[in-house]
Amino acid sequence: MARLLRQSLVLAAAALGVWASAQANECLTPGAWFATESGAVRPVKADDVLAQMARGQVVLLGETHDDADHHTWQLATLGALHLLRPRMVIGFEAFPRRGQPVLDKWIAGNLSERQLLEQTDWEKVWGWPADLYLPLFRFARINHIPLRALNVNQALIKAISAEGWQAVPESQKEGVTRPAAPSPAYLEDLFEVYKLHPDGDDPDKGRQSPSFLHFVDSQTTWDRAMAQGLAHAARAPGDAGQPLVVGILGSGHIRYGRGVAYQLRDLGIGSVGMLLPVAANRDCAGLAGIADAVFAVPKLPASAPPPPRLGVRIERTKDGIGIVEVVKGGLAESTGLRAGDRIVSIAGTGIARMSEVMSAVRAQPPGTWLPMRIRRDGRELNLVVKFPPER
User: Fold this and answer.
1) How far apart are CA 192 and CA 201, in angstroms?
2) Cβ-proximal residues to 210 (8 Å cutoff; 6+ apart), any chain
3) Where would I find the H helices in the chain?
4) pLDDT for 384 beyond 80
């Protein structure tokens, strides 16, 4: 078993393109694990981290949704944990609860990859490139590992964000119970996120404003929904013993144990592990206590800069691909894009899928211009996204 585990970790390192040593000004060695739970950042053996995680009830693996290296790390970590604890369940933030019957069919071998994505409405519900997640889905099917849909419909999150928890009828809450009140530290985290929203800079919308409090309700409901799905799987009876439940979530729901782990503990799940991928070229400030351990993902070489980001959140609607949110300081804001715009075409090509928007942006070389046609207030406008030159 130890030999197989070492082989799995070697493959993980190779897949991530690990360098043998860190640069002198970096505190994290690329391709290495670091314990962070005790208030300090210290190197730790992979075997020790994974053995500790495998003894628990729930393990949370973080990600930046569009970072391919993060998903490669998740796959390698899943493989190593599965060797230590073969009875496993994997939960995904990417799927709302209504997609559970489809996931069951996928694990049973009754669906193709295309059918899985179509029947879970991947393009509309999640929208991030499916190629980043498919290796995880294949791993689960090959090893007959049950999948769990952890999320709720975005309509519920939007309703709570607009009106607050109390104003939304119980019949619309999809069985989600009232979230535990967030910690003061999490409230500060959420306020920083809230300030990036279109109305977050309104001086009248402070920490006690209804707008912010509704936003807190929506985010803690999101955490609670995923925690409920993980807790239910962790308590599932079975002749072979309780499974190790692994959650594949955005890192923001995991950091410092303030999101999903906090709600899990409120639900009576006491043994929760948290693992995060972090950039190997970052300093260690802020890492203490961020998780039980972090894996230092090597930074991309200079010849392969990270793909560009437009700085918007988009969704598919009956009218096409709409911009829901524009990030302050991003390319979209400087271009003049606004929340509520509908994307008609990019570089003269009509847009019908969210993935087409992402692919067009990610493929754009530094220093070039990308024409975009949008529909706003019944009029069509031509805008040009000007990508900054390579540094």
Assistant:
1) 11
2) 164
3) 2-16, 46-54, 68-84, 100-107, 113-119, 122-125, 134-142, 154-163, 184-194, 210-234, 260-266, 331-335, 354-362
4) yes
Between strands 88-96 and 293-297, the pairing is: unpaired
Residue 321 confidence (pLDDT) above 50: yes
Tell me if 23 sits within 8 A of 281, measured CB to CB: yes
Which two tokens mark 25? 């000004």
Strand order in the sheet with 88-96: 42-44, 33-35, 293-297, 272-279, 58-61, 244-248, 88-96, 147-151
60-83: pLDDT as tens digits: 999 999 899 999 999 999 999 999
**Chain-centre distance of CA 296, in angstroms?**
18
pTM of the model: 0.78
3-class state of residue 379 by DSSP: strand
Distance separating alpha carbons of residues 357 and 364, to the nearest angstrom: 11
How far is the C-alpha of 285 from the C-alpha of 295, rounded, in Å? 15
Contact by Cβ (8 Å): 189, 229: no
The single residue listed with the structure tokens 């295309």 is: 114
Domains within the chain, CATH numbers bracketed: 2-153+219-297 (3.40.50.11550), 312-376 (2.30.42.10)
Long-range contacts of 306-312 (CB under 8 A, 24+ apart): 307/66, 307/361, 307/362, 308/361, 308/362, 308/364, 308/366, 308/387, 309/361, 310/337, 310/357, 310/361, 310/385, 312/337
Dihedral sign (CA 163, 166, 169, 172): positive
**Contact partners, residue 242, CB within 8 Å, separation at least 6:** 57, 87, 234, 235, 236
* More confident position, 199 or 262: 262
Supply angle C-alpha 359, 365, 371, rounded to 5.
Answer: 70
Report whether 196 contacts 327 (CB < 8 A).
yes
Which amino acid does the sequence have at 264? L
b/e per residue, 94-114, with b = 16+ CB within 10 A?
Answer: bbbbebbebbeebbeeebeee
